[in-house]
Amino acid sequence: MSHHHVLTASGTRAKPLRRDAQRNRDAIVAAARTAFAEQGLGASLEGVAREAGVAIGTLYRHFPTRLALVETLFDAKYTELLATAEEAAVMDDAWEGFCRYLEKLCQLQACDRAFNDLVSAQLPLHVAGRAMFERAKELCTQVMRNAQDQGVLRRDVTAQDIAFVIWSQAGIIQATRTVAPQAWRRHLHLMLDAFRTEGAHELAEPPLTSQQVDQTLVALECDEEDCREQS
Fold first, then answer.
1. CA-closest candidate to residue 83, choices 109, 108, 118, 55
2. Which helix (H) or strand (E) holds 98?
3. Of 89, 71, 66, nearest to 135 (Cα)?
4. Nearest CA-CA partner of 224 in 142, 114, 127, 128
């Protein structure tokens, strides 16, 4: 009988799965990827199980929590984002690197409603997911520092200001998804122009602090929970 290994959320090797169990797990992941992309993080797990052709109990045996399933689905997307960030951080043209990183981030938001939900609100990620999230933040900071050192990114832009890109794009992507799915690109490039050093004016308000960003993320998460309970 054939067995397959899977990794746990902490990155350790789990017990091997029998062929039929692996087939069920693969079907659950495939069904969840479609459902979450279309419906967001609040997608019905019962619906995922039904689409995968398994009982809800089978889904929970493979993924005891919704978060465990989310992390499995988005490990590949975070890996893709990190690869782009690594490239952007070493580009000779720091402005191009800055633009490339934000373009990739917004592209991933636009093509998957659940990823859009994930990056625009705070979730209690496990060890593996948290490590990738923190690494993405570090690389984003380096990309910004490079652009500021080259004098192309205005000096008063902080890492917390990138949250405005994510939050604004989240709403725009959701609002225009069915009528103008590429509208987010126009908005992104309008924002990029505002980030340029040339033509910069003094800003009326100071940047958010890290604490204020965290408090906002908690509020966004609570709003998301309320929406899921009402749906």
1. 108
2. helix 94-111
3. 89
4. 114
105-163: per-residue pLDDT in tens? 999 999 888 888 877 765 555 555 678 878 888 999 999 999 999 999 999 999 889 98
pLDDT number for residue 52? 96
220 alpha-carbon distance from chain centroid: 14
Distances from the Cα of 29 to the Cα of 34, 63, 66, 71, 85, angstroms: 9, 10, 12, 11, 26
C-alpha distances in Å from residue 81, one per residue of 40, 61, 68, 141, 209: 19, 30, 20, 14, 24
Give pTM, 2 decimals: 0.77
- Strand pairing partners for 196? 153
